[in-house]
Write a structure and sequence with these properties.
331 residues, alpha/beta, TIM Barrel, 9 helices, 22% strand, globular
Length: 331
């Protein structure tokens, strides 16, 4: 089966999504990896890499960027883990899984000064590349702009709209129908004046993507019930209860203590668990540079098959993602 590719205009403004999106076209392409060059746009398109990549960096590593096994500030992950859910049984409960994720998942455009600053960028991989690396949980922060959601980190617009993230995820699921994508959607800052309500805007997205969307999930939901779906939830505390680690205003040394405590206390029998490994001091990228290797070493000390729940990271390395998947999700 071929791969569907979606091409959209990339000249954007923080207005309604109708203005932002302009024209999208869907193409069926062979299942392969290739480079598509359009004036002003360089895009890498991937198929489902069930066999994995060869471990070499994809593309040049930009000056000042680092690609380690646990930390990556380059624009391309070193390996693919895209189809990891396909081998798990349909009966596997979501709450019994370890699911790699990213914090402030839409902030990859902040690099190069396009938006925000060093303090607003938490990712370097495009959402498409995050999916290919095996990231299946996304922390989406939005601002209401008229009748659409603009992706924000605080007040900083990220030059991405929520509809584009849904397009990327739905195209990924079209090519990988046995996978599931989870999105936590929350408001990052005050709405643009005159905007529709949060619930009204969600209803608009439901009309456009309803076939593939699933609103929240219960503790009894299994992977088989959710395959091929984007599971959206908007109430973090309602979904995870008090099983959340999110001490973000911390130094790396303070944060790693919270992370270890959180992962040691996971009891998947009680429900879903969420650990944010991110912190803001002195800024997100530096904190990830210090703590991602510590997190990687720590999880290697855990028994294989241990349930660690959802883990949302900044600048994760592809091997850290790989180990979270394959050490703790047994077939």
């Amino acid at each position: 089966m071929g791969m569907r590719m979606l091409l959209c205009s990339v000249v954007v403004h923080e207005q309604t999504e109708t203005v932002y999106t302009h024209l999208c076209c869907s193409y069926n392409m062979p299942r392969t990896t290739f480079i598509l060059i359009i004036p002003g746009l360089l895009a890498t398109v991937y198929g489902c890499s069930r066999g994995g990549w060869d471990g070499r960096p994809r593309g040049a590593v930009a000056a000042g960027s680092t690609q380690w096994s646990s930390y990556d500030s380059t624009t391309s992950p070193a390996r693919s883990n895209s189809c990891w859910m396909s081998s798990l049984p349909d009966s596997r409960r979501i709450q019994d899984m370890t699911i790699p994720g990213t914090h402030d998942s839409g902030t990859y455009t902040a690099d190069g000064g396009e938006s925000g600053s060093t303090f607003s960028q938490c990712q370097s991989w495009h959402l498409r590349d995050q999916l290919q690396a095996g990231i299946h949980f996304f922390d989406i922060r939005v601002r209401r702009t008229s009748n659409a959601f603009a992706i924000h980190h605080g007040i900083a617009f990220q030059y991405v709209m929520f509809g584009h993230l849904l397009n990327y995820a739905s195209n990924f699921l079209y090519d990988n129908p046995r996978e599931t994508v989870f999105m936590l959607v929350r408001e990052a800052t005050d709405a643009q004046e005159g905007s529709h309500s949060f619930d009204d805007i969600l209803t608009r997205y439901e009309r456009g993507w309803g076939r593939i969307l699933r609103w929240s999930a219960t503790n009894t939901d299994t992977l088989g019930q959710l395959r091929g779906k984007i599971v959206i939830f908007t109430n973090m505390w309602g979904y995870f209860g008090n099983r959340i680690e999110d001490h973000y205003d911390t130094t790396p040394d303070e944060k790693i203590t919270y992370i270890r405590q959180s992962l040691n206390n996971v009891n998947c029998g009680l429900g879903k668990h969420l650990t944010f490994t991110s912190s803001t001091r002195p800024y997100p990228q530096y904190a990830a540079w210090i703590n991602n290797p510590r997190v990687h070493d720590f999880i290697k000390s855990k028994p294989r098959g241990t349930c660690l729940g959802f883990i949302a990271m900044d600048f994760p390395g592809a091997n850290l993602v790989h180990d979270l998947i394959y050490r703790f999700n047994r077939n």
